[in-house]
Amino acid sequence: MWQNGVKRKTLEYLICPSCLPEQSCLCPGNLCFGGEEIIEGCLACRRCGKTYPVCDGIACLGKDGNENLAASPYESPQALSTYLWTHYADLFGDPEVTKAYCEWAEQISPFSGTALDVGCATGRFSFEMSAKCDLVIGVDSSLSFVATARRIMEKRHLAFSVKEEGLIESERQFTLPPGWNSAKVDFVVADAEALPFRSGSFGCVASLNVIDKTPHPLEHMNEVCRVARPEKGQLLLSDPFSWSGRICPPENWLGGTLVDRFAGAGIDNVARLLAQAAPAWTISRRGAVWWKIRNHRNHFELIRSLFIKAQR
Length: 312
Ligand SMILES: [Zn+2]
Prior knowledge:
Blueprint: E1 6-7, H1 8-11, E2 26-34, E3 37-45, E4 51-55, E5 58-59, H2 67-70, H3 77-88, H4 100-106, E6 114-118, H5 124-129, E7 135-140, H6 143-155, E8 157-165, E9 168-175, E10 185-189, E11 204-208, H7 217-227, E12 234-239, H8 266-276, E13 282-296, E14 299-311
Parallel strand pairs: 6-7, 6-11, 7-10, 11-12
Antiparallel strand pairs: 1-3, 2-3, 3-4, 4-5, 8-9, 12-14, 13-14
Zinc ion binds near residues 18, 19, 45, 47 and 48.
């Protein structure tokens, strides 16, 4: 029986997130395989001795253990339902959904190699990318999101509840289109500021609506640039720049302030950071995508996410 576990190919990319910037290998221990995939076991760092568990096919690679990940606000059933609707509502024909994920996917040219989808949530963009390259690794700090993305990868079909009003819910279901290849997708739990991957690994890196959701956005940007290929690499960054002091103190914002290093608009500062990266990125396109969240049948949030497509 085929079981849903970490793909062997994914292991080749992994390093210890706690030892960064050192690139320290992870040694598999006590692994239990289901076919070619790892279902249970652990990955241990030779350098610092930390171990990262693989449970039910989910590798948890949070920096300094996984305690911080468990505190993620995205673990609630309501958050999961909301993101499933946002990601997949076009597949069940909901007229309210935007075409954000199709528009983002259109920015990526097909290539030979592996893509990384940072902040993959329930996996929509990773599945889109599976039609454009050899392997896609989606990472998110939410165990609930990653577990659900993996379930969709395995079953290719999901039924879930959405809130209609108050305590009233109804069911939605969807099936993945045949062009999205589950054999080319993997999902792991990790931190967007300490990506557990070797430098220069990915032919394409996407960070969609992550920059303003992380406590140290500059570290996230540096990590995105680090893991992307130094040449023939593509990058898609998109964010609404909804800075919030609850998530990230203003001194860490990459925009939205009047003074200091990152005064002005976040999108302009992000463009400047990309031009200053080593090697530098060349921006090929700037644009905006409308993205919608559904809280209940009469309550939606419409968000404009500004994007930069770049290559080097
Ligand atoms: Zn380590």
